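debug: dumping io for the single-chain case to check the tokenizer round-trip. Nothing else runs in this session.
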Amino acid sequence: MRLDPASSQALDGRLTLPESYELCRQVQRTHSRTYYFSTQLFPPEVRPHVHALYAFMRYADEIVDNPHETSPAEQLTGLEVFERETVAAINGEEVPNPVLQAFANTVRARGIEVESITAFMESMKMDTRVSRYRTYADLEIYTYGSAAVVGLMMSRVIGVTDARADPHAEALGVAMQLTNFLRDIKEDWDRGRIYIPSEDLERFGYTEADISAGVVNKPFAGLMEFEIQRTRDLYDFAAEGMGYITRGRRFPVLVARELYEDILDRIEAQGHDVYTRRAETSQAHKIAVMARVAAREPGEILARGRDRRPAEIAIPSGS
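debug: decoded output
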């Protein structure tokens, strides 16, 4: 199985807890520039736990995202082993995987529900046996575990305790994943998967053969606009729950939400062509969004400056 973190350290269990968290930080920095940018805006007490949550999810993704290297049966076996090791680590047992050392510490420190982890792993297993979704309701079964509960876990990491925030956190997680689905249609096709519901393809007269050929035409534009609006509706609902996040920790979530929604703007700006151009936001754009959110929410910056609690574990200063 391939993990490919920025560090060359082996996953051999010889890392200390701070070193394990540092490995997680490197994984996130390497594989998710937008998410990592937003994570750095959290207070130091929060950041390591976000790194650990991301690295845990990335590790599971890596098991199922290399279909040309492993069979579905091998992927399923890998996920089952990884799930057993995760449970063992959460229960306080020593495991050789430093990603799980850090993640288990985060689960215990931040009160992440085991049910959320179970739901996440079940969706990862779905990727070994499901490659098409007939309806959006079918897709929602997958996105609940792959994205909605990620929003819930992230809520726990940043200290949200009001249950009324949960539906909004779930919506943000799903919106971000749907954004990735629209941006990564070609990459997912290369892995043998389509995350756009078949009923939507049929509604707009766009076929799997068109996806294979990378056709950008009027039916595709209509399809993409339909999916983009569905995703924007989720971002709007997610925004209604921002007030449940403690001041000082809301700012990075606001920035992340805007940066991910801006990917939809990029898709539209390039004529919906996601086959030959990747819809990305530049570093300059990230900084501009951060400045815009800061100007709109000055109380967030003041509150963040007051939240100077140290990290709950000894993390190298580079994080």
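debug: round-trip ok. Confidence is low (pLDDT under 50) at residues 4-10, 314-319.
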